[in-house]
Specification:
The chain has 203 residues and is mainly beta. Helix content is 0%, strand content 55%. The strands form 4 sheets. An 8-stranded antiparallel sheet has the order 4-3-9-18-17-12-13-14, with no helix packed on it. The protein has a 4-stranded antiparallel sheet with strand order 5-6-7-8, with no helix packed on it. Strands 11-10-15-16 form a 4-stranded antiparallel sheet, with no helix packed on it. The protein starts with a strand and ends with a strand.
Amino acid sequence: PGRVWLDKNRDGRFTPEELVLDGGKGRVTMADKTATVAANPSIQVLSRNALHVVVRVSSNAEFPEDKATLSGAYDLHVYLNQPFLRVLHTWTNTNTASEWTQLQSWDLMSPAAVGAGAQVAAGGLDGALGVSAGPVSVDQPFDNAFTVTQQGRTVARGEKAEGWLDLSGSDGGVTVALRDFWQLYPKRLTAGTDSNGRSTVTV
């Protein structure tokens, strides 16, 4: 799950070389403990017609020591003859024994096959930055302050980030956007490379 193909030559078929996203690896950190999102999610078709299909992918992230489980549902909206995929996600804390559950971070990283010369554009950033010079992140730590950084260097700042980031190369591109980005701070979007030199996007 999480793999995305783009029919670049519009022949109606999705081939291995047209794979854009290679499937995300979810990670949730609670204090100093890390849980990995379940590898075998359930898949359900919620609705479908000739123009629009909605598929729900459900999975859990568990912290056995804390008896905490986070239940997640990703609704994938696919539209006829549209080049984009809309993803709406909801996570629910099913640990009713405790009033609060403290999360340190929540990441979803996916390799992105965008080709050579990968460039990053983002809301609040003038122009584009090359990923080869280091990862680019949009951070909204508070509701009235955001920064765009590359390799730890601040290249832009402001109050309310637009909440989107685009990674594009010679073979295509991926744009990631989060609803209510600055309102539901803290939030972060990052584009970079992994240990194998592949371009990646992280939410």
